[in-house]
Specification:
Layout: E1 2-7, E2 17-19, E3 21-24, E4 33-38, E5 48-52, E6 57-58, E7 61-65, E8 75-76, H1 88-95, H2 102-110, H3 119-129, H4 133-138, H5 141-144, H6 152-176, H7 183-194, E9 201-207, E10 213-221, H8 231-240, E11 245-251, H9 261-277, E12 280-287, E13 292-294, H10 300-306
Parallel strand pairs: 3-6, 11-12
Antiparallel strand pairs: 1-4, 1-8, 2-7, 3-4, 5-7, 9-10, 9-11, 12-13
Length: about 300
């Protein structure tokens, strides 16, 4: 993917199209410059021409091939050299963030590209290599720094932006006070926060007497395979926020949602601790890569309420 300025030259009859491109003619006059941000194929000595009225374009042109004298006229330009109306940051201010592509938004976070790459080029490469934002969010920061053009500062910018998005989503959901009626509701609420993490994180959903979410708090975050959750911490947190009921949720970075023996033992302990303090534990949901396990759906929460703690 190249971001280039191409000098407008007259099209030739019968020139073969080299592929549709995103184009704009800032000058509106012959001999001006066109900005393309799309796959562009060319070879030295075979410059491109701009043909008005092409079938697929943004603006009024498509790239077409044509061997013309004068050598290769295709040149890379940094974003600062683009026409002002095409720069991602300026477009965000004038048109709004929703009008920008994911790559353009990521380019604003990156601020600069790498040698021979604009920030948009680098953003596109990252989204391609990591299969989108979810892959970037899950990527190890040290691994990301091995990418050309990414140092610790840019990796920190990416990770901070993604975490802000995660926290915004959590804040919006909490303000909406959704009502939990099933494990499906729990998954819809928590999967955007927990799926894709490379470490195990446990969160506690706090509910009022009507099973409406009044908040959620992280209990612990651990290694790749486990995190430490203590019944005392969970119940103190629930009491502090005057919760009538709670739901424990955690992810399995391995992608397998099946509970371990320690997951089962912990759940039983938490259920009985909640009964003693009159804070009902409604469920414990484990999130895998594509599925989930609900202790309530399997009837285990009620079973644990009837069963004394072993030993």
């Amino acid at each position: 993917m190249s971001n280039v300025l191409v000098r407008q030259i007259p099209s030739r009859p019968g020139a073969a199209c080299a592929g549709p491109s995103r184009a704009k003619n800032p000058t509106g006059a012959a001999g001006g410059f066109l900005l393309f941000s799309a796959p562009i194929w060319w070879s030295p000595g075979h410059p491109v021409c701009w043909q008005p009225g092409g079938p697929q374009h943004r603006g009024n042109g498509v790239l077409c091939g044509g061997a013309l004298p004068g050598g290769d006229i295709l040149t890379r330009y940094a974003i600062r050299d683009w026409p002002e109306g095409e720069r991602p940051r300026e477009r965000l201010i004038s048109e709004g963030a929703r009008r920008l592509t994911t790559a353009e938004l990521l380019a604003i976070v990156l601020r600069t590209g790498a040698r021979g790459q604009s920030a948009v080029d680098l953003a596109l490469a990252l989204l391609r290599d990591w299969e989108g934002l979810a892959g970037l969010e899950a990527a190890d920061p040290h691994t990301l720094t091995e990418t050309k053009g990414l140092g610790p500062a840019k990796v920190a910018q990416i990770k901070a932006a993604l975490e802000l998005g995660r926290r915004l989503l959590a804040a919006v959901e909490e303000e909406a006070r959704p009502r939990i009626t099933s494990s499906k509701d729990v998954v819809e609420l928590m999967a955007p926060r927990l799926r894709g993490l490379q470490v195990e994180r446990c969160e506690l959903i706090l509910l009022n007497g009507g099973n409406e979410v009044v908040g959620s708090r992280m209990l612990s975050e651990g290694s790749l395979t486990e995190s430490a959750v203590y019944p005392r911490d969970m119940m103190q947190l629930a009491n502090r926020h005057h919760a009538a009921a709670v739901i424990l949720v955690h992810n399995h970075p391995s992608g397998n949602a099946q509970p371990s023996a320690s997951d089962r033992a912990l759940t039983q302990e938490l259920v009985l601790a909640g009964e003693l303090l009159r804070i009902r534990m409604l469920d414990h949901v484990i999130l895998g890569r594509r599925d989930h396990f609900s202790f309530a759906d399997r009837g285990l929460i009620e079973e644990y309420r009837r069963r004394p703690v072993a030993g």
